[in-house]
Design brief:
This protein is α/β, with parallel strands linked by helices and 260 residues long. The chain has a single domain, classed as Metallo-beta-lactamase, Chain A. The protein is 30% helix and 25% strand. The strands form two sheets. Strands 6-5-4-3-2-1-14 form a seven-stranded mixed beta sheet. Helix 1 packs across helix 3 and helix 8 runs parallel beside helix 9. The radius of gyration is 17 Å and the shape is globular. It starts with a strand and ends with a strand.
Amino acid sequence: MILQVLASGSKGNVTYIENEGQSILIDAGLSCRETVRRLRAAGREPEKLSGIFITHDHRDHIAGARVLSRTFGIPVILSETLYAAAGHQWLKDVHQISLYTRGSDIHLKSMFIRPVPVSHDATETVNVIVSNGQYAAGIFTDLGTVSLPVSTYAADVDLLMVEANHDLEMLQNGPYPLWLQQRIRSNHGHLSNDQCGTLLVESCRKGRVKKMILGHISEENNRYDLAYTSATRYLKREMIDLPLYVAKQRESLEELKIED
């Protein structure tokens, strides 16, 4: 199984996952044109995508789904609740809608997606586990707090992506108004560098995680080097020495293989 983050941040999120020739996108927050550009630059063919899974209805996760679906005939996969609330705005006249009910896994030809409900200020937000039955990747971004299900699932993957959205000091001293700072720091907002570091350590202690990615890093309230240094400090304190990558907004991350 292969995972490649094409974009991660508040201006657009797209992650490509492939297994045995089948490929999907988790979210489509970039424009169709930019998504296609990044796919082709990575040697991917958008014509072969078999689905676009939408985690929630914030623009940076759903904005490009409609045009991408119509252009290449790709089904859009999302929950019944999310489609009822946001489908008329974001997904009008898409190629195909594939709905799932809360608590259900989505079974594809060579993979399955397990939605994990999380706390975030959208209509409905899920994080995801994508597995081929042997290996699994977990994407945990856009969550304001780490629930028991999140901590449980995050420890049971081979590749773990966790958001390191903001540095608390930068957020407090930055340009955002107080109400927006409070929203970001709330249980319905985003994880800080410290919360990210704690979740990484707790997940790695269980022994399955082999690779990690820092994602959804704010360009206003964090820095890539700061997020990386913070996470590394938490991991070194527990003598955890595993590959750690940084997903960025303006460039794609390298392809990562999910295996032993």
